[in-house]
Design goal:
The complex is a heterodimer of chains A (492) and B (347). Chain A has a domain at 359-421: Dna Ligase, domain 1 (2-Layer Sandwich), CATH 3.30.1490. Helices cover 33% and strands 22% of the residues of chain A. Chain A has helices spanning 9-16, 38-44, 49-66, 94-118, 123-126, 132-136, 184-197, 199-205, 213-223, 246-256, 293-296, 312-317, 330-333, 335-349, 366-374, 400-412; strands at residues 69-71, 80-82, 85-92, 158-165, 171-177, 234-238, 259-262, 266-269, 272-277, 280-283, 286-289, 322-324, 356-357, 361-362, 379-383, 392-394, 417-421, 427-431, 438-446, 448-451, 455-457, 462-466, 480-487. In chain A, strand 1 and strand 2 (80-82) form a beta hairpin. In chain A, helix 7 crosses helix 8. Chain B has 347 residues and is an all-alpha fold. Chain B has two domains: 1-155, no CATH class; 160-317, no CATH class. Chain B is globular and about 85 Å long. Classes of the chains: A alpha+beta (492), B mainly alpha (347). Chain A binds chain B through residues 64-67, 78, 240-241, 246-247, 250-251, 253-254, 259-262, 264-265, 267-271, 275-281, 298-299, 303, 306, 310-311, 314, and chain B through 1-4, 6, 92, 96, 99-100, 102-103, 107, 110-111, 114-115, 118, 159, 258, 316-317, 319-321, 324, 327-328, 330-332, 334-335, 338.
Chain lengths: 492, 347
């Protein structure tokens, strides 16, 4: 174990840190600080270890006090944890961000055109760009909504696209989350905490703000209000206080100044949605729902859902209430559809994709399947419709039995599996123990894209970090933490 | 305001007030024991049992404990989460309700309540309690009073505010009457009490201390503690913020701020019952109460307060609420009818 001298944290960081083998966000191949981290380094090195430790503890305590926590499933009620927060920010130069912004805008535009198309004319299927069976057999394709017109033709209003960087530093899209992506509240709260802890840094460095996210969200929700409603009542529909993202739901509702409702607060009469108030029933026009399609309406989807609102789909079809995101976007999250996104961009926009996909193999294509089955110990296999790091096989780290089990699953249901090479996610110096010792940890980036009258993306997004040594899994449910993400005004 | 939100605000406030009052009751009784010497087991049980009865959970107490010893009773009232009315349970419930309406309260208010929650959940809390129960209770009381202050200083005076007030004053009136009831057993069943001897005077003083009423009482009645004076003060004083009359007056006022209906009229049962109770507390004398028996009177007062709570629920919280199965049926009927009309128009 390396010694831990009592010097300033940044000096220790540089003397012991080993970026070898991976792309490191802060240090280049020779161990020099990259240009866009230099200003940060200069300010950070004036901190003593003690000051750093003090700031770290006070931020953790503040998060616990403010109840910025997530609930852990499969645990007794009251099992709340803070989402671990790492003080070293991830810094992105302005030029790099502009490229990402354009790539993300291009992607969500293509996805919305794709959804509009497959729920109407299905031209992309007829033109043979995507084999029809992939869409029509998709678990989350809602055939009931074919030929239904969603307000303003927007399907995905809020998208959380996960980006990673390979060992050359190239950005790749890992997945698109077009249903109910969560985590944006941490972007806002992490920034608030960092500003409190390091006010001078923000003055000195110049970091693009993120605080306008709730206004952008509210603007979009106004935009999609049913025709003829001048002053719409907008609500956020939550599954309730035991949902893992409940903190975020209340946070966003409060920031937007809208009511947060549970299913039991809403009632449908004459195909209109109302909320139960102390003064009787009051109409609701736009619902930012944080409940998945399956649980939304027990008269249409899962009958056993206690979270939903009976009749809400009927009201939606009648055009009396708008939903964000729309029903049926889950098909775009299908990992088989992900494979086709670059083709969608080409087909609908006649452009080259600005952001590349991770190379992907479809188990349902004979040639790909052969390759997958022969290389299971090298590949990452993912179920087409799972998320949160569940339902996947990490070939290089799996046991023989696990590999054999996945082989069977793939052969039984090829449509439900894809495979990708193991990407070595980029790393970032991260504080790893109570002695303020730094090591490289793998990170990803989830920007939040809002599609309303215009496309709005707050600079940066949520940088998630896999806190376990060597781990590539950044999900909060599996030992992940987060960092503040700084997009600079310039490139240095 | 959403009915569910009003309900949560009301209960959040009630539970905070409840926790504070449990702290008051247990603290004062522990201190009183320091003044009484040579107590055998039976006398001790006589001292503690009424306190369990005060919170109304006697059956449950004896399911969990064999004897009403000081330790068993304080454990039951303070830490035991099996007791839904223990101090810790009340704080958990208050926080749970606050969590559901996090968007309705200020960050200052939430952080303090959350801090109190984490405080009572830590081993540190038990350590403090073991070393000095008074110190522990002081912290809980202070936190509750801090919350009341934060409420006054930061919460919006909207409809929700009045639900918070109703929860607080309903609970406080109830607890004041229950604290008073602790001593009613020592009085003659009917008729006015005599001046108290020294040990009794100590116990009546403890009642005043429980309600933070000691200083106010002395200003009005001098240092001599007379049962009649204490009862009159805690039930009928106009200006003391923990007396029954004061609390019910505030409760009545808050109800009317929600509906906009003036004094002397009513638009729901909660207002009707609260108005009646205000009048009764204004136009009764302490001698009449002793004539009927204090315990009986307090019992009736508590059930009147319960009725107001239930009527409030009917008026604002649960209107038109079908269960899920019924609701699904209503929707299916409605949608079927509609498709029938559509088909007709197409024909």
């Amino acid at each position: 174990m390396p010694t831990k001298p009592k010097t300033q944290p940044i000096k220790r960081l540089l003397s012991h840190y080993e970026p070898s083998g991976f792309f490191d966000e802060m240090l280049d191949g020779e161990g020099r600080i990259r240009p866009h981290y230099r200003q940060f380094q200069e300010l950070f090195q004036t901190l003593t270890t003690r000051e750093f430790e003090h700031k770290r503890q006070s931020i953790d305590l503040a998060f616990l006090r403010q109840g910025i926590t997530f609930n852990v499933y499969g645990n007794s009620a009251g099992a709340e944890k803070i989402f671990p927060f790492d003080l070293l920010p991830r810094v992105i130069p302005a030029g790099e961000w502009e490229m990402l912004e354009r790539g993300l805008a291009q992607r969500i535009t293509a996805l919305n055109l794709f959804l509009r198309d497959i729920y109407h004319e299905q031209k992309i299927l007829r033109d043979g760009v995507i084999p029809p069976s992939y869409v029509l057999t998709g678990k989350h394709f809602r055939r009931e909504f074919v030929n239904f017109n969603v307000p303003k033709d927007i399907y995905i209003h809020i998208c959380g696209t996960d980006l990673i960087r390979d060992n050359k530093g190239q950005y790749l899209v890992l997945e698109d989350n077009g249903r109910c992506p969560s985590g944006v509240s941490y972007v806002l709260e992490n920034r608030r905490a960092m500003k409190r802890a390091f006010p001078a840094m923000f003055e000195g460095i110049g970091v693009q703000p993120v605080e306008h996210y709730p206004q952008e969200l509210l603007k979009m929700l106004h935009h999609i209000a049913p025709a003829g409603v001048a002053d719409p009542t907008i609500v956020l529909l939550t599954p309730g206080a035991y949902n893992s993202a409940y903190f975020e739901h209340t946070y966003l509702a409060r920031q937007m100044g809208i009511e947060i409702v549970e299913g039991r607060d809403l009632v449908v009469r004459d195909a209109r949605v109302f909320m139960r108030t102390t003064k009787g029933l009051q109409p609701v026009h736009v619902i930012y729902r944080r409940i998945d399609d399956d649980f939304l309406d027990p008269t249409v989807f899962r009958r056993d859902s206690l979270l939903g609102v009976p009749g809400i789909v009927h009201a939606y079809r009648a055009g009396n209430v708008s939903l964000a995101n729309s029903i049926g976007t889950g098909i775009a999250d299908d990992k088989v559809m992900y494979y086709f996104v670059p083709r969608m961009i080409k087909y609908y926009l006649d452009q080259e994709p600005l952001l590349a996909n991770v190379p992907t193999y479809l188990a349902s294509e004979a040639e790909d399947q052969k390759y997958i089955l022969e290389n299971l110990d090298q590949l990452v296999v993912k179920a087409a419709n799972e998320s949160g790091g569940y339902g996947m096989l990490m070939g290089p780290k799996a046991t023989r039995a696990e590999i054999a089990a996945f082989r069977k699953k793939i052969e039984a249901e090829p449509r439900n599996y894809i495979a990708q090479p193991m990407i070595s996610l980029s790393r970032h110096p991260t504080c790893v123990d109570d002695d303020n010792y730094f090591e490289g940890r793998h990170i990803d980036l989830r920007p939040y894209i809002i599609y309303g009258e215009k496309i709005a993306i707050v600079p940066g997004g949520l940088t998630r970090v896999a806190l376990r040594k060597g781990s590539l899994v950044v999900n909060s449910s599996q030992g992940g933490g987060s960092k503040d993400t700084w997009v600079l005004y310039g490139d240095e | 305001m959403l009915s569910r939100v009003a309900n949560s605000l009301y209960w959040m406030s009630r539970y905070i007030e409840r926790a504070e009052n449990i702290a008051r009751i247990v603290d004062v009784n522990l201190q009183m024991l320091l003044d009484l010497r040579n107590l055998d087991e039976e006398r001790l049980a006589q001292h503690w049992l009424p306190i369990v009865e005060t919170t109304g959970d006697e059956t449950q107490f004896f399911q969990l404990h064999k004897k009403a010893t000081g330790q068993a009773v304080t454990e039951f009232l303070v830490f035991q989460t099996e007791n839904p009315n223990s101090l810790v349970s009340a704080i958990c419930q208050a926080r749970e309700n606050a969590r559901m309406i996090r968007d309705q309260i200020t960050i200052e208010f939430w952080e303090e309540l959350n801090r109190l929650y984490w405080f009572v959940k830590t081993p540190e809390a038990r350590r403090i309690w073991k070393e000095s129960p008074s110190e522990f209770f002081q912290q809980v009381k202070n936190s509750s009073l801090h919350l009341i202050g934060l409420g006054y200083a930061t919460l919006l005076r909207n409809e929700g505010w009045w639900f918070v007030q109703i929860g607080k004053f309903l609970e406080r009136a109830d607890k004041t009457s229950r604290i008073l009831d602790l001593r009613s057993g020592a009085l003659p069943e009917k008729g006015a009490p005599e001046a108290a001897g020294q040990p009794e005077a100590l116990e009546w003083s403890a009642i005043l201390h429980s309600c933070s009423a000691w200083d106010a009482y002395k200003t009005l009645h001098g240092a001599e503690v007379h049962p009649r004076g204490v009862v009159e003060f805690l039930l009928f004083n106009d200006d003391f913020p923990r007396s029954a009359r004061f609390c019910v007056g505030q409760l009545n006022h808050a109800l009317r701020r929600i509906s906009g209906v003036p004094d002397g009229r009513f638009c729901n049962d909660a207002e009707k019952l609260a108005g009646r109770l205000v009048a009764e507390l204004q136009f009764s004398t302490v001698d009449e109460i002793f004539g009927r028996g204090l315990h009986l009177y307090l019992d009736q007062l508590q059930s009147k307060l319960n009725d107001i709570g239930a009527a409030l629920f009917d008026a604002y919280i649960f209107q038109q609420f079908n269960n899920l199965e019924d609701e699904i049926m209503v929707q299916q009927e409605e949608q079927q009818q509609q498709s029938r009309t559509i088909r007709k128009t197409h024909l």
